[in-house]
Amino acid sequence: TGITFRDYSIPQIQEYLQKASGGHEPLPEALFWLLCTGEFPTNNQFEDLQSEWRVRGHLDNDVINYITRLPKNSHPMTMLSMAILYLQKDSKFAKLYDEGKISKPQYWEYQYEDAMDLIAKIPRIAAVIYRQKYKQGHLIAQDESLDWAANYAHMLGYDQFEVKECFRGYLTIHSDHEGGNVSAHATHLVGSALADPYLSFSAGINGLAGPLHGLANQEVLKWILEMKRELGDHISNEKLQEYVLNTIKEGRVVPGYGHAVLRYTDPRFLHLKDFADRHIKNDPIVDLVKQCYHVIPPVLKTIGKIQNPWPNVDAGSGCILNHYGIKEYEYYTVCFAVSRALGCMANLVWARAFGLPIERPGSITLKWVEAKFGDHPEEK
After folding, report:
1. Closest to 56 in 3D by CA, of 348, 345, 353, 372
2. Cα separation of 125 and 127, whole Å?
3. In angstroms, what CA-CA distances link 149 with 172, 196, 202, 295?
C-alpha cells in the first residue's frame, strides 16, 4: 500500500475511522487516536478527544496580537513557525523540567500535554495567519459545534460542506509518513534533545517549508498554470508530452512526480483523485492534473535515471485547494503543516515514552572526503 497509519492503509482508515454526518472523509481526531494507541477509537473516545481539543483550542489575545503584528510580507510558513515558538512560553514540559519536578518516566506525560495543546491551537493559529495576510485582517471566530478540520475551513472563510470534507480528508492523509521525511525527522531530532513540542515542531515546520518537501504542492500549481498559459486551454496528449520533455531538457524536474521512497503511485494522490472524481466537475486545472496522471508516467519511464515516474500527493493537493477558492498557493504548505502536527506530535510522545536517546549523526573529516573522492595519481 506504500503509506500506512499504524499498519492501516488509506482505504482502511477511510472505511473504519469516524466521519461527519453525511460525509465520506475520515476525521483527523480519530486518526490521532489511532496514531497514539494503535487502535480505532470508540465513538465515546472520539467525542471525548474532540471535546478536549475544543477546550484546549482557545487562543489568548496576546497570541493573536503577536501574529497580527508580524510583517505581512513574511512567508506564511515563517509566520507559523514564529507563532508556534511564541506559544513555547506556555510549555508545561519545559516549566516542570526547569523546576526539576519531573523524572524521565514522566517525560512523555507532559510532552503529551503540550502536544495536545499545540494540535488544538494550530488550526486557529493558521487561520489567523491566513486572514491577516490575505483577507485584510478580518478574523473569523471559531465554531465549537464543528469538528477540528471543518472548524479550520470555517475560520479560513470557507463554509461549504464540500470544502469541509476536502479539509477532513486532506488533514488526515497528510498527517504522518513514517519518520524518514524532513519534517518528521527534524521534529524527532530536536525533540531527542528534550526540547519541548513547540521548539521541536517549529523545527519540523521549517523543514517542511523547503521546496523539496512541503513547498512542492505550490510548485505543481505554478507549473500547471505556466503550461496552460503557454499551450492554451485544450492541450492534447502530444503537446503535454512535448512540454514534459522540454521541462526535463531545461534541467528542471516535473513537480509532483517521483518520491524518495515510493516506487508507484502515491496512495494519497489516489485518495485526492477519488475525492475529485466524486466532487469536482469541469475544472480545467483539476482535469489537467488527471490528464497528467495518464500522460506523464509513460514519458518519464523513457528516461532511465528516473526510478519513480508516478505522481506523489503534491501532484493534486494544491490544485484541489485552488478549485475551492484558496488561490494563495504559498499558503498551501501551512495546511500541510497543520496536518503534519498530528503525526509529529504522536511520534514525539512515543519517543519520550520509549525513552529514546538523543540523536547524534555520524561525522566525517576532510581527510576522509579526500581519500574517498579525491584524485589518486597512483591509480592513473
Report:
1. 345
2. 5
3. 9, 25, 21, 33
Say what the pLDDT of residue 10 is. Answer: 95
Alpha-helical (H) ranges within 135-196 are 148-156, 161-173, 182-191
Concerning whether 259 is annotated as a catalytic residue, the answer is: yes
Q: Which residue is it, cell 472563510?
A: 157
Q: Of 166, 299, 179, 186, which is closest to residue 243 (Cα–Cα)? A: 299
Residue range 155-193, pLDDT digits in tens: 999 999 999 999 999 999 999 866 578 999 999 999 999
- Residue whose C-alpha cell is 477558492: 325
Q: Assess whether 375 carries a catalytic annotation.
A: no
pLDDT bucket at 380, cuts 50 / 70 / 90: very low
**98 vs 304, higher pLDDT:** 98
Q: Do residues 258 and 248 touch, judged by C-beta distance below 8 A?
A: no
3-state secondary structure of 280: coil
pLDDT tens sequence across 223-255? 999 999 999 999 999 999 999 999 999 988 899
Q: Of residues 188, 213, 271, 323, which has the active-site annotation? A: 213
- Write down the catalytic residue from 117, 266, 314, 323: 314
Place of cell 494507541: 37
Asked if 9 and 1 touch (Cβ cutoff 8 Å), the reply is yes
Separation CA 41–CA 29 (nearest Å) = 9
Half-sphere exposure of residue 309, counting CA atoms within 13 Å on the CB side? 17
Identified catalytic residue from 259, 266, 271, 323: 259
pTM, entire model: 0.94
Any idea which residue has 475520515 for its cell? 26
CA distances for 288 relative to 150, 252, 323, angstroms: 28, 20, 12
Residue 311, classed as helix, strand or coil, is strand
